[in-house]
Amino acid sequence: MIVYGSPLSPFVRKTLAYVSEKGLQVDVEPVGLGSRDPAFREASPFGKIPGFRDGDFTISDSTAIITYLEAKHPRPALIPAEPASRARTIWYEEFGDTILVAAAGKVFFNRIVSPRFLGRPGDEALAAQGQTELGPLLAYLETVIPASGFLVDDRLTLADIAVASPFVNLSHCGIEVVAADHPKLAAYLAGILARPSFAPMVAQEKAILAA
User: Which residues pair with 51 in a beta bridge?
Assistant: First the structure.
């Protein structure tokens, strides 16, 4: 199996962390957004990352990839079968992928991607707007994190992987959740991002950005 993309993308990172928690093995083919690489474009016709290949089967989009893998490799179950738990897991994935990434992405793109990889200054006003938008999102997460440190069923699910991933991009921008302001969220993120599925990948990303 091949995942096309860069773990600096929160969606690629989410996919790779999920794969790791499943105990699966994939090869990572590094490609950038919009790459014209033919094998990548077969998997992702519109150039979005991640792309994915399993033999003759190709697909793109992190949610589609994870849906495929969860059906093909159901154990350990990272998307619960019980209806309410399954719905909550999908809600948190959607929250992470759209609402949280929308705010964090404004910061990461304008402070890291644009100046570092595109060679043009980012829009600092837009980055500041994204940082402001994070406020209510952090407050919301602070209210919903259970004492167990997992969002659904007191165990790791896709919900935790999807919510934690965008915070890595914020960390790359020097933005950390302050324990004095959001103690439950800070402890939650420390626990999830210390897992073997995340920690080595995040260290590799930091090395890339430090080079």
Answer: 4, 60
Quick one: which of 176, 102, 101, 191 has its CA closest to 146? 191
Q: Considering the chain, what is the average pLDDT of its residues? A: 96
- The C-alpha atoms of residue 205 and residue 150 are separated, in whole angstroms, by 25
Q: Are 31 and 97 within one domain?
A: no
Which residues are CB-contacts of 16 (< 8 A; sequence separation ≥ 6)? 3, 7, 26, 28, 197, 201
**Residue found under tokens 């402890």:** 187
> Tens digit of pLDDT for each residue in 116-134?
988 999 999 999 999 999 9
Query: Do 102 and 61 reside in the same domain of the chain?
Result: no
Question: 34 with 107, same domain?
Answer: no
User: Distances from the Cα of 182 to the Cαs of 11, 40, 68, 91, 178, in angstroms?
Assistant: 25, 40, 35, 21, 6
Could you list the residue range(s) of the whole structural domain that residue 108 is in?
83-210
Q: Is 136 exposed, middle or buried (0-12, 13-18, 19+ CB in 10 A)?
A: exposed
Task: Answer whether 0.70 is exceeded by the pTM.
Answer: yes
